[in-house]
Structure formats: C-alpha cells, structure tokens
Amino acid sequence: MSSNSERTASYPFSEEFHSHFAGTGGVDQSDQSTAIDEHTMEELRGLAARYPEPRSALLPMLHLVQSVDGRVSPAGIEACARVLGITPAQVSGVATFYTMYKRRPAGEHHIGICTTSVCAILGGDVLLDRVEHRLGIKEGQTTPDGKFSLERIECNAACDFAPIMMVNWEFMDNMTPRKADEILDALAAGKTVHSSRGATITSWRDSERVLAGFPDGRADEGPTAGEASLSGLEIARQHGWSAPGPQRTAPDTESETQSDSANQSEGRSRDE
User: Fold this and answer.
1) CA-CA 20 to 30 A from 71: which of 194, 233, 241, 259?
2) How far is the C-alpha of 107 from the C-alpha of 144, rounded, in Å?
C-alpha cells in the first residue's frame, strides 16, 4: 500500500474523466443569430392551436424552429416558451433530451448511419468510417462549408434493408461504401438524388418542416415498401394463408352467476 506522502505527491491526479457523450450539454448560447420572424411566430401559434393542451405542440414546434434556424436556437427556445406559456428551461429540457433536435447547426444534408444490431453485423461501422473519411468530419460534426452533417444513429426499423444510411431522414437501403460515395458526391454536386423508399432528397430543413406538420405534397412520391418487406406477404398469398379472425371467448356462466348474486346482495343491503 502506498504511503500518505506518495499519494499526496501525486495529487492533483493527471487522469481526467472522459465522457462518452461529448456532444451533450445545453443549446449553444454563443450563437444568438436567428431567422425567426413574425411569419414563423404565427406558424408556431398555429401549431399550438392544433392541440387541446398547447404544450403538446412543443415537439413539432421545435422541428419548425430547426427548419428556420438550422438548429434549436436560443431565440427558438424563447419563442416556443412565449407561445406555450412555459419557461425557456422547460423547452430546453425537451430540446436537449431528444437526439433529433440539434444544438448546433446541422448541414444542408444530414447523414445518419445506423450501427445497431443487423446494420452493424452487415457493415454499419465500416460504412460510418467511410463516410467520415469522405466528408472529413467525425460523427456529430458538420463540414466547414455547411453542406453535410453526420450522425451515428440507432435502429431505423429497416433491418430487412441493412445496412441503412439516412439522408435527411429518408432511407438509403442496402448500402455499401461505394454507394455511399456516389450518393455523397451527387448531393455535393447538387444533382437529383432519390431515396430507396420515399421522396426525392431536398434538404434537411425541408424535412424538418414536414416533421413540424407542414406537408410538402410528396408523401406518396416513390415506393413506400420494398421487396424484402413484402416477401412474407407474397409467400402467404401463394399458399393461401391468412391471419385468423377474431375469436369470441365463451362466457363463464358460473362467474357471471356469482357476479349477479353479489350485485343483488349489495342492492338488498342498500335497501335495508
């Protein structure tokens, strides 16, 4: 065992606590810029009016803020608080809880790579590494030109198309490093890019506006389901299989009789 003098001599310790959540913390207060105007405020008030309890509109309101400011801005937090009649701290608590809300500016195109479960087994980590090198940034960062931001994301509920890459929350199925390079190069060049199952890629801010509850008229653009998802249905059709219909459970006559007797007894007791 070390002596007290040895322990004292080594103080302060050189070791530091290394957080695995380096991107966490509050909203960036150093950037007070905003593009929120009276039109945005009117849309925020309109969102709040859609709900019996106005505070229920906070999540879509934060998406609207991101569509305008490219992040959850300090001004956006204040605006939501004023409309809903709650404190900025309460808004910030929600904004910093969910990973879809960005505390620093996201890129024109937000790239998400799934590295969970099936995607990881089929090359999700390799795909993330390739995209990091291609863009010259690490996960959680935005390119200096503001064109791309990158995020490691959890399950996208698309395991039948793994590994998955998301572009502005649109699916890119059965990805390979080469396919990722081609998509990123096309986006950087301003070329038209189509998602595997969804709409043509526009921008992250446009997608955020849709998530806020303002449809862009492209909900039915592109296929909504792929072959892998429909294969089970096709097999069932080939074999004439179908789901069983609802089954009515036979009434428990004895239990019902006991219940009726108890109700009658209770009624007599009240009469007496």
Assistant:
1) 194
2) 9
